[in-house]
């Protein structure tokens, strides 16, 4: 067997060591990884650019629509305001108490032998109507004439209003004698209190021109 | 099974450690300074796109809704304009008393006067632009039937006027005539 001497073994070992250098291998691995990461980053950056373009387009679309939408929202709020205000005003209008029909009914109740000297009517906060009526009645039985007026008023008001109460607050004979239709008749002074409610059955106003078609 | 034993020298171990540290630093820098901001930028852009697309979609329904509302509110708008037109320009104290005087004069009731008693804002939020005015209308001499007709015409002609109190007294010197005091409130647009 021939003797084989490797005189370069140290150099070969050093070369092998250089090849197996962990730092070198690590740097290569890092480099490869870095390259992969860079590629991935560039791919992502491209996608982000694409998304930004879409965003720009969306912003452009919105910029075109926004003034219209703002105007529409403003108009919508304005219209809603008008609708609700009109509703409230209509409620107020419809909730009014109409005095003319009441006065008409009252005038129908006053007979020839009675005279009203004062009427004081008020719409109370709860919507009830309170009317104080003062007057004079004449006849053989002036108190009966006053009572007749009260009964008639109760009946007439009951046709249009609810919870009607008509009561005497005063009824007194007077010494004065009046001549009605050629006959002397005695007199009585009366005071009536009428209270009624319009909440359920409202009196309709006297027909007349209205600005609104309903 | 063969066991492969790799013996590392101290120098090699140090280099390997350095490589590991380098790898960690690379990953950290990559995610923190490159991929992280890019991802957050993408997420934010996507969120903005979603938001804007939602707004654009909503805007279409908003425009349709407004157009529909415009049609529905046609009657209310006309009605509102008519009610608003009942309050002319200027202070109510300047135009309301003459208007009432003219109105009653046209109804054959002379010497009618109207004086302002109070004015206050409405509690209802819907009536923020309206004011309630309280008036006392005095009719020194009026026939009962004429008065009744005049009040009916007033109640029909002035929908925003509400008579809250009525006081009628017979005149002792003229039994055919009455002295009348009306307390009324009106809703008027703030000018």
Provide the descriptors you would attach to this structure in a database record:
A: alpha+beta, Alpha-Beta Plaits, four-stranded antiparallel β-sheet, 4 helices, disordered C terminus, B: alpha+beta, STM4215-like, 2 domains, 4 strands, rod-shaped
Total of helices of chain A: 4
- Strand % of chain B is 15-25%
> Helicity range of the residues of chain A?
40-55%
Radius of gyration of chain A: 52 Å
Global outline of chain A: rod-shaped
Question: What is the total tally of β strands of chain A?
Answer: 4
Which bin fits the share of residues in helices of chain B?
40-55%
Strand order of the largest sheet of chain B: 1-2-4-3
Structural class of chain B: alpha+beta
Please summarize the sheet with the most strands of chain B. Answer: 4 strands, antiparallel
The CATH first-level class of the largest domain in chain A comes to: Alpha Beta
Strand order of the largest sheet of chain A: 1-2-4-3
Number of helical elements of chain B: 4
The end-to-end distance of chain B, rounded to whole angstroms, is 102 Å
Task: Tell how many strands the DSSP assignment of chain B holds.
Answer: 4
Protein chain pair with the most extensive contact, residues per chain: A-B, 74 and 70 residues
Structural features, described:
The complex is a heterodimer of chains A (214) and B (191). Chain A has 214 residues and is an alpha+beta fold. Chain A has helices at 9-19, 22-94, 99-109, 142-160; strands at 114-123, 128-139, 162-180, 183-197. Chain A has two domains: 22-94; 99-197, Alpha-Beta Plaits. Chain A has a four-stranded antiparallel sheet. In chain A, helix 3 (99-109) packs antiparallel against helix 4 (142-160). The N and C termini of chain A lie far apart (130 Å). Residues 209-214 of chain A have low confidence and may be disordered. With 191 residues, chain B is of the alpha+beta class. Chain B folds into two domains: 14-72; 88-189, STM4215-like (2-Layer Sandwich), CATH 3.30.2000.30. Chain B has four helices and four strands. Chain B has helices at residues 10-72, 74-84, 92-106, 144-157; strands spanning 113-121, 130-143, 161-170, 177-189. A four-stranded antiparallel sheet of chain B has the order 1-2-4-3. In chain B, strand 3 (161-170) and strand 4 (177-189) form a beta hairpin. In chain B, 22% of the residues are buried. Chains A and B meet through helix 2, helix 3 and strand 1 of A and helix 1, helix 2, helix 4 and strand 3 of B. Strand 1 (114-123) of chain A pairs antiparallel with strand 3 of chain B, so a sheet runs across the interface.
């Amino acid at each position: 067997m021939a003797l084989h001497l490797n005189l370069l073994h140290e150099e070969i070992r050093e070369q092998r060591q250089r090849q197996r250098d962990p730092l070198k291998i690590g740097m290569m691995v890092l480099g490869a990884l870095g390259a992969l990461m860079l590629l991935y980053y560039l791919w992502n950056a491209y996608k982000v650019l694409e998304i930004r373009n879409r965003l720009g387009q969306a912003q452009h679309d919105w910029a075109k629509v926004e003034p219209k939408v703002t105007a529409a929202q403003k108009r919508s709020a304005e219209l809603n305001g008008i609708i609700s205000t009109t509703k409230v005003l209509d409620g107020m209008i419809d909730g009014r108490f109409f005095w003319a029909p009441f006065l008409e009914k009252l005038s129908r109740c006053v007979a020839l032998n009675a005279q009203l000297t004062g009427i004081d009517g008020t719409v109370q906060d709860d919507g009830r109507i309170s009317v104080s009526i003062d007057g004079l009645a004449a006849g053989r039985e002036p108190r009966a004439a006053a009572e007749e007026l009260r009964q008639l008023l109760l009946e007439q008001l009951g046709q249009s209003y609810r919870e009607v109460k008509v009561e005497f607050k005063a009824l007194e004979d007077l010494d004065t004698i009046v001549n009605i239709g050629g006959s002397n008749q005695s007199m009585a002074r009366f005071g009536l209190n009428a209270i009624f409610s319009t909440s359920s059955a409202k009196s309709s106003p006297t027909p007349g021109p209205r600005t609104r078609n309903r | 099974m063969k066991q492969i034993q790799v013996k590392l020298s101290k120098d090699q171990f140090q280099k390997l450690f350095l490589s590991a540290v380098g790898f960690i630093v690379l990953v950290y820098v990559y995610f923190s300074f490159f991929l992280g901001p890019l991802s957050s930028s993408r997420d934010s852009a996507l969120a903005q796109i979603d938001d804007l697309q939602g707004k654009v979609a909503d805007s279409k329904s908003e425009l349709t809704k407004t157009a529909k509302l415009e049609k529905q509110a046609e009657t209310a708008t006309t009605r509102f304009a008519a009610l608003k037109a009942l309050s002319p320009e200027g202070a109510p104290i300047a135009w309301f008393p003459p208007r009432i005087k003219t109105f009653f004069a046209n109804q054959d009731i002379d010497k009618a006067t109207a004086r302002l008693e109070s004015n206050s804002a409405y509690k209802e939020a819907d009536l923020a632009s309206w004011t309630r005015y309280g008036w006392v209308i005095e009719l020194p001499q009026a026939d009962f039937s004429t008065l009744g007709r005049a009040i009916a015409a007033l109640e029909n002609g002035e929908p925003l006027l509400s008579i809250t109190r009525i006081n009628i007294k017979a005149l002792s010197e003229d039994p055919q005539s009455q002295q009348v005091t009306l307390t009324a409130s009106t809703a008027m647009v703030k000018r």
